Amino acid sequence: MHQSLGARDILARFRTDETRVGTAAGITAEWDAFDSTQWRRWIVAADDSNLLQTWAYGEAKAATAGWKVTRGVFRARGEAVAIVQVLTKRIGAYSRWRA
């Protein structure tokens, strides 16, 4: 969620006379299928984004602190309507329990 937009505001974008919010909205997600140039265009178009969503921030966190970066674009009817940069990091060791 963007800090200045609530879920209700985002979902209202997809509400039409013919559809209800939800799966009928035709929202699709695409992950890590674009380059930094396209990402920069989306950030500029968003107008009110922040440092935490920039490509450079994600790359810096990956290089210096071991974070894994995943970037996604959400589309409604083929049009990009939201982007997200997700940083994940494993904490602790993982071992599978064996019987």
Shape: globular
Rg, Å, rounded: 17 Å
Beta-strand share of residues: 15-25%
What's the rounded overall pLDDT mean?
Answer: 79
Decide which structural class fits the backbone: alpha+beta
Distance between the termini: 41 Å
Please, how many helices?
A: 3
The biggest sheet amounts to:
3 strands, antiparallel
What's the β-strand tally? 3
Features:
alpha+beta; three-stranded antiparallel sheet; 99 residues; 3 helices
Account of the 3D structure:
The radius of gyration is 17 Å and the shape is globular. The chain has a domain at 26-88. Helix content is 28%, strand content 24%. It is an alpha+beta fold.
Helices and strands in order, then pairings?
Layout: H1 7-12, E1 27-31, H2 36-46, H3 55-65, E2 68-76, E3 79-88
Antiparallel strand pairs: 1-2, 2-3
Concise description?
A hairpin with a 2-residue loop joins strand 2 and strand 3.
